[in-house]
Amino acid sequence: MDDDKVNFAELLQRVPTESWYALFVYILYTAFLALNVYMARAFTSYFPLYIARVLREFIATFSYCACLYGDEILLHYFGYIGLFAGILLHFSVFQRLNKRNGENLLIIGEEVLRMNIYVLDYGLVIVAQISAAFCSRYYALLILDTTLVPVSEICHLKHLFYENDALQPILIIVVLLEFLGGAALHMILRQFQKRIETIAFFYALIFTISHYAVGVFAPHPMIFMSRYAYCSVDMVTEEALLAFLVHNLVPLIGWMFVPIVTRKPTTLRSVWGQRFEEMEEKSQAPQGGNNKKRR
């Protein structure tokens, strides 16, 4: 009977030392990033409210993009199960820390199409999020390279659609993944609003599937942009433009497909869309009050 028992201590000893070190680095990387986000958000309280909101967009997007570099450590040493677990943990932690800031740009994209956001707000959000996405890679390089766990230099976007000046069939798979991912994410976020762990689970599931299929995390425009910055340098112009359009516009089309088919307007609002509605209500309130007095 004793021979049939599982010796967990022996199983753990079989795990390579490099894997344990990578897991240790991952935990430190996560804790350090979470601490930085917490302190940075606290620092924004010293700024005027509007500026603080923009800064929190930067901080939130930065954290979501940066955490994926840490998750790729688990992918390298523990496979896709490790990647799934890492994304699940990170999105659970950083959704709580960031509250509603740095939400998926697909939500804001729909608000733009429905003219439910101020142009200035949208412009500042785009600048803040893209800047954060670009900076996240350099943060990961700085932190992880010092721990001797280098960030992957492989650009999965390069020659993804083009090879020998010819379009590749994988383009169809990527377009389908982005479209279906955008549609699925809309339904999930609509159904499970404010359920952080559930949303984190589905993000982990969708990201893991998309990365396994085509090597990119979809659908999330800013996470794509965090990789696009250094990949596009070595890409031909046509491929760089095509990659930008596919990974940014196709998921938005899938996202917008849901309310059109279901004929139910979205209930999702970003903090900027909510601000727009509140400001519009305030601007109309005095007018309504004056009309009542005249009657």
UniProtKB/TrEMBL annotation:
Signal peptide extent: none
GO terms for cellular component: cytoplasm
Record bears the keyword Transmembrane: yes
Record InterPro entries: AQP11/12_channel
Keywords, ordered alphabetically: Membrane, Transmembrane, Transmembrane helix
Gene Ontology MF, one: channel activity
Keyword Zinc-finger: no
Residue stretches spanning the membrane: 20-38, 77-97, 118-140, 166-189, 201-220, 240-261
Record-given protein name: Uncharacterized protein
Protein's organism: Caenorhabditis remanei
Organismal lineage: Eukaryota, Metazoa, Ecdysozoa, Nematoda, Chromadorea
